[in-house]
Amino acid sequence: MRHNIAVLLSGNGSNLRAIIDKGLEVSFVASNNPKALGLKIAKNANIPSYSWKNVSILEKEVLKLIIDYDVKLLALAGYMRLLSKNFVNSLPSKFIVNIHPSLLPKYKGMNAIKQAIEDSAEYTGVTIHHVDVEMDSGYIIKQERIKINENDTAKSLKDRLQKIEHRLYFETIKFILNKKKKD
Ligand code: GRF
Question: Is 100 a catalytic residue?
Answer without folding.
Answer: yes
